[in-house]
Specification:
The protein is an all-alpha fold and 165 residues long. It is built from seven helices and no strands.
């Protein structure tokens, strides 16, 4: 699993070629796990602050809130900064592996914008919501579809060796 994650990171900004389902989904899974691990301390700090403030009731001053945040929320802020830096670091590899995955099923990398078109369609009442849902499901199906067998216009089949065995 980790080798596919590293493979996607090594192809940092490579938008040409093809990526297998394993590479795309394991990259997404590892990103989810890392983000979850970084977010747990953030949410713990927020919940701790909220429950402490609620337990003290209405007789708490703004100075006490600021003092609590400065004394107890430092690690949450540090994890938040690390999370933001991590998200920025994997944005381009995530975009690149998504485009390569679309290439693997024979679609243009511009199909990556399909879910965002759905978000714009949400501006149309009722119909837009169904269109957004439909486009998102279609994009998910594309990402789950098996590779095109053989070479296509985006490159050679990444599963060719497995298919010959």
């Amino acid at each position: 699993m980790f080798k596919y994650y590293l493979a996607a990171l090594k192809k940092y900004a490579t938008f040409s070629g093809r990526a297998r389902r394993k590479e795309f989904w394991y990259f997404g899974l590892m990103n989810f796990i890392i983000a979850l691990c970084l977010c747990i301390p953030i949410y713990y700090g927020i919940f701790k602050m909220v429950f402490t403030l609620v337990s003290q009731g209405n007789n708490i001053s703004e100075e006490a809130i600021i003092e609590f945040v400065l004394n107890n929320m430092g690690y949450s802020i540090i994890f938040y900064v690390i999370y933001i830096l991590y998200a920025l670091a994997v944005f381009v590899p995530g975009l690149a592996v998504s485009v390569r995955r679309l290439h693997d099923v024979g679609k243009s990398g511009w199909f990556f914008l399909i879910p965002y078109l759905g978000i714009l369609l949400n501006l149309i009442p009722i119909i837009g919501s169904f269109a957004c849902l439909g486009l998102s499901i279609w994009f998910l199906v594309l990402m789950c579809t098996d590779s095109q067998v053989g070479e296509n216009k985006y490159g050679s089949d990444p599963k060719a060796e497995e298919r010959n065995i």
